[in-house]
Write a structure and sequence with these properties.
The chain has about 625 residues and is an alpha/beta fold. The chain is about 35% helix and about 25% strand. The strands form 3 sheets. Strands 17, 18, 19, 20, 21, 22, 23, 24 and 25 form a 9-stranded mixed sheet that branches. An 8-stranded parallel barrel has the order 1-2-3-4-5-6-7-8, surrounded by 6 helices. Helix 5 (about 110-125) crosses helix 6 and helix 11 (about 250-270) packs parallel to helix 16 (about 450-460). The radius of gyration is 28 Å and the shape is elongated. Bound molecules: magnesium ion (MG) (2 copies).
Length: about 625
């Protein structure tokens, strides 16, 4: 499987784009005419630059408004084509993309268009060039790949072929199975893009909202399966017009792009088609729980954090045999507190201050999970081991954190016994009845959200939920969840659009993205709340107005509402069940804990978020959030 990406997909000048594309491991690049025109080097130098990066120019584009023109425009169009051919030959590429005519003067007519393409094919053949025809979803007469294919078929010229673009086909809901009957040698290249489902003008949707396969809602996999059925084994080329990507980091976007293609290729291969050759990699890892969350803290802060964890019902159960690392446990929850000044934890502390910088997941096969992550472009993470330590497979997460992978079939299953000495915690505080981690909430800049989403869903057997807008009084936070069927993995991703939101403040002040809150599960939130109160744990105070509204909204019994109110418990309900939530105040720059009880409920209390955020802001305001 050969991968390519159009220069229009990422930010920077042509030089920066090519560097990022080569570094991400692509084989080829589509040169967009505007990227070339805005650059100062000659076509020959640009071609050399591409080849110096070890890349191939997969095509030059776009050539617009070609077919079906009346004279004298028709003759001029052919002259224009000859000049593009000159440029392509200097640059060193043999394929040009001709997109279907959008001109109001285009005459239409399948045979007229076929005749035009035959003549263009003759001219291209003299120079050893090829022409690929693509139906734009908004083309004047041709806006369906089946009609474009009919034109190519009737042109019947070896130098004329078809270009299929998943966006144009899928945005118009054209049956992808119509691709299965196209001969593979007539498909000159495949362009791929996904997009979120938004009901809007096709052109605007295409030019601003495309994203990488797997990041949006279009059935790109079904499209690719149909392509693979033809036996096509040429380039898969990303053509992504996205405002955020054009403003984002070229390196990060290029890595996402390559990851999306490899992941897509792997899915096609697993669906039983072998025309795509790509390196074998293990299947997506099955997650059966969160093994631990690790905090990096300063020695001076440990007693504050330890005391806080004890009031939450945790017990100090282990001390690392060779490092300043401690484990606190309750139910299936393991919280690791790392105060070791050396190693990655220390470095992470120096950069971000106190934070939950690492997460360990229980998977079916830890080494296989890491192998898959690395095949998808993730960076393997490791640190020198002390005698007696076991190596825990890990990769760098997207936001600079670490994702550890553990399985129950290796020594990793006994990590706590092997590496830690037991500690007898003589606290007299009450257990709170927390049983596990319901979800981990990570916060990042909005433009990075898709990167995180793709990272998790490509490596782990999990799916994404639709995006939800969380209204913070200071702006919008976009939230999307990565979760698996059994509910053993739930990660909420919160993309902050500006730094005045609670989420944005957290990113700005911790100098990066990361875990902003941990939600612990309990089977009885009222008992948990009572125990917390006995332990002196102050929960976040929710406005009384919330409860009046809640009672009316759900028709709750006043006595029940009073119980919720007495403990600052938030409530929600969906078709599947009930949800109860309570929160800690924020610590430091915005980290907090949540305790939830869910009975069948599938969401995350989005309707309550505005009340929670308002309460957290009241708490945080003295130390920095702007007053609204
Ligand atoms: Mg295209
Ligand atoms: Mg939550």
């Amino acid at each position: 499987m050969k991968t390519s990406i159009a220069t229009v997909s990422i930010s920077g000048d042509l030089k920066e784009k090519l560097q990022a594309i080569a570094k991400a491991g692509f084989d080829g690049v589509e040169i967009f005419e505007n990227d070339f025109l805005a650059f100062d080097e000659s076509p020959r130098q640009v071609g050399q630059m591409v080849r110096d990066h070890g890349l191939e120019i997969t095509l030059f584009q776009p050539f617009r408004d070609f077919e079906g023109m009346p004279e004298p425009l028709r003759s001029r169009t052919f002259d224009r084509a000859e000049r593009k051919f000159d440029l392509m030959q200097e640059m060193g590429t043999d394929l040009v993309l001709v997109c279907s005519n959008v001109s109001s003067v285009a005459l239409g007519g399948i045979d007229r268009a076929a005749a035009d393409f035959f003549e263009l094919g003759e001219r291209a053949a003299k120079r050893g060039l090829r022409v690929g025809y693509e139906a734009l979803a908004w083309g004047r007469h041709i806006h369906d790949h089946r009609d474009a294919w009919e034109i190519v078929r009737r042109a019947d010229h070896p130098n004329i072929g078809l270009i299929l673009d998943s966006f144009h086909t899928l945005s118009r809901k054209i049956d992808v199975n119509s691709i299965r009957s196209i001969p593979k040698e007539k498909i000159f290249i495949i362009q791929l893009a996904d997009a979120p489902l938004i009901d809007m003008d096709l052109l605007y949707w295409s030019r601003h909202f495309r994203n990488m396969p797997g990041e949006g809602d279009l059935p790109v996999l079904e499209f690719m399966k149909a392509v693979a059925a033809t036996g096509y084994d040429g380039y898969l080329s990303l053509e992504i017009f996205n405002d955020q990507f054009r403003g984002g980091s070229p390196t990060a976007i290029a890595v996402d792009g390559r990851r999306s293609l490899v992941y897509l290729g792997d899915q096609v291969r697993r669906a039983g088609n072998s025309s795509l050759t790509l390196p074998p990699m293990p299947a997506r890892a099955e997650v059966d729980g969160i093994a631990f969350i690790e905090f990096t803290v300063d020695e001076a802060e440990t007693s504050v954090l330890s005391d806080r964890l004890r009031t939450l019902g945790f017990r100090h159960v282990g001390h690392h045999k060779s490092k300043r690392v401690d484990v606190f446990r309750q139910g299936d929850i393991n919280l690791v507190v790392n105060t070791d000044p050396d190693g990655f934890a220390g470095a992470s502390y120096a950069l971000h201050g106190q934070s939950a910088y690492a997460m360990g997941l229980w998977v079916d096969d830890a080494e296989a999970a890491v192998a898959r992550a690395v095949a998808l472009g993730a960076e393997r993470f490791g640190q020198p081991l002390d005698p007696g330590e076991i190596e825990m497979p890990a990769v760098r997460g997207v936001g600079g954190g670490v994702l550890y992978l553990l399985d129950r079939k290796s020594a990793l299953a006994r990590i706590w016994e092997i590496e830690f000495d037991p500690v007898d915690d003589d606290t007299n505080l009450r257990p709170v009845g927390l049983t596990g981690i319901d979800h981990v909430a990570q916060t990042m800049k909005y433009e990075e959200l898709l990167t995180w989403l793709l990272f998790y869903t490509a490596i782990l057997n999990a799916h994404k939920t639709p995006m939800v807008d969380i209204i913070d009084p200071a702006g919008v936070v976009r939230s999307q969840v990565v979760e698996n069927e059994p509910g053993t993995l739930r990660i909420t991703l919160n993309g902050a659009e500006n730094r005045n939101t609670l989420a944005g403040h957290f990113i700005a002040e911790t100098f990066g993205s990361g875990i902003q809150h941990l939600a612990f599960a309990t089977d009885n939130i009222f008992a948990a709340a009572a125990a917390l109160s006995d332990n002196g744990f102050a929960t976040l105070v929710i406005s009384p107005n919330y409860y009046d509204d809640l009672e009316a909204r759900f028709g709750l019994e006043p006595a029940f509402t009073d119980r919720l109110k007495a403990h600052n418990i938030l409530y929600d309900r969906d078709d599947h069940g009930e949800y109860f939530q309570l929160y800690s105040p924020t610590y430091g720059e915005g980290f907090f804990f949540e305790i939830v009880q869910r009975s069948g409920y599938r969401g995350y209390g989005a309707a309550n978020a505005i009340f929670r955020i308002a309460a957290l802001r009241r708490h945080l305001r003295p130390i920095g959030l702007p007053k609204l």
